[in-house]
Amino acid sequence: MNSSIFRRGRRWHLSPAIALAALLALTGCAATDGAARSEPTGSAGPADSAGPASSEPVGLLPAAEGTTTYPLTLKTWAGESVLQKRPERIAVIGTSPNMDALQALDVTPVYTLSEDSYAWRDKAWTEKIEKVDTATRKDPINFEGIAALKPDLIVAVGAVWEKPDFKKLADIAPVLDTEKEGEIPWQDLQRLVGKTVDLAAAADKVVTSAEQALTDVAKAHPEFAGKTITIANDYGPQYGLSYYTVAGTFTEKVMVDLGFTANPNAKRFVDEDVVSDENQGLLDADVLVVVYVSEAVRKAREAKPLFTSVKAVSEKRYVALTLVEDEPTKLVNAAGTQVENATWVLRAGASATSLPWAVKVVAEQWLAGAKLS
Question: Which of 30, 41, 42, 285 is spaced 20 to 30 A from 88 at the CA atom?
Answer without folding.
Answer: 30
